[in-house]
Here is the input.
Amino acid sequence: MLVKILDRHGAEFSGSIVEAQKSELKKVKNWNFQWSKLFDNHSWIFKLVCKSEIIGLIKIKWENPDHFVLANIELSPDNIGSNGTYKNATEILIAYSALLSFKLNKGPYKGFWHLPVKGIL
Here is the structure.
């Protein structure tokens, strides 16, 4: 899927969201998650790419046959915070997972998704 990515100065760049391959995830270094270890047969990992660089990743994991959860989301280290290179990468990844919930989820779960809490409340 083609997307418009904005840098922190408002300039537009063309980007895309495509399924990531395990071999690509092994090259992702200095991120909080070890994405190559998150790769499995019960989920999909999608990458947000701009200028041939992975700037964000999401993992959707099937919770049951009808519905997935957004299991992981992360931006590349140089895109974190207000000084990050691109300012709408997170929004693009979340919107894409919402779109997938309409395409992939079934029955009463169409259009429903959630991001499980990873920390202590």
User: Anything to note?
Assistant: Residues 19 and 27 are 15 Å apart (CA to CA). Residues 89-104 form the longest helix (16 residues). The mean pLDDT is 92.
